[in-house]
């Protein structure tokens, strides 16, 4: 019963995707169900890309590191070429790419949740290995989404100056009471 409830709760991510896909400029605000089906074709293509990278990692990474890097570079250039082609032919905008990320990342999370719910049934199949690879790539993607803006802000000189100004501000230092924290730490270390 709990596994069925987990699967039903994971369906909310697909409804979220359904709502976002129809707001893309590339769909030309069409309400046809084919737009949603095409979004699943894109998701399958992304999954195949993840599977290709995972297989390349297994086949090439130990003995043929340079070949694996060329393989990943080829896949990267192919994806960029497809995005540029779609932007020229089908009027794919940068906002569409952002909305696709907002739609497809929760969908991937929903699929991972469903795979975890049915893990006893698929654990000894290739689907579970693929799920693990997808979860690893999902973690990489979420790391980029979460820490990318922080890294960009850390490189900006205005943010560095603002941070230094706050850190060395006398009013800030007066309210920062480090002595009680250090005293507690010393008490813990005493025998």
From TrEMBL:
Could you tell me the superkingdom of the organism this chain comes from? Eukaryota
- What sections of the protein cross the membrane? 33-50, 70-90, 138-159
Going by the UniProt record, its keywords in alphabetical order are: Membrane, Transmembrane, Transmembrane helix
Stated name of the protein:
Callose synthase 8
Question: What organism is recorded for this protein?
Answer: Stylosanthes scabra
- Identify the coding gene: CALS8
């Amino acid at each position: 019963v709990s596994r069925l409830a987990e699967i039903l709760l994971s369906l909310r991510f697909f409804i979220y995707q359904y709502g976002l896909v129809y707001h893309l400029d590339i769909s030309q605000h069409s309400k046809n169900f084919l737009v949603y089906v095409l979004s699943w074709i894109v998701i399958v293509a992304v999954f195949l890309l993840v599977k290709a990278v995972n297989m390349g990692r297994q086949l090439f990474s130990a003995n043929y590191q340079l070949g694996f890097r060329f393989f990943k570079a080829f896949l990267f250039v192919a994806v960029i070429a497809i995005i540029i082609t779609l932007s020229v032919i089908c009027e794919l905008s940068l906002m569409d790419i952002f909305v696709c990320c907002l739609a497809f990342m929760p969908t991937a999370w929903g699929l991972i949740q469903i795979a975890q719910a049915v893990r006893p049934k698929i654990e000894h199949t290739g689907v579970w290995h693929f799920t693990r690879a997808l979860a690893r790539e999902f973690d990489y993607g979420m790391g980029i989404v979460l820490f990318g803006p922080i890294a960009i802000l850390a490189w900006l000189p205005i943010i560095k100056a603002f941070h230094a100004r706050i850190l060395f501000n006398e009013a800030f230092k007066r309210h920062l009471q480090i002595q009680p924290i250090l005293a507690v730490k010393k008490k813990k270390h005493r025998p």
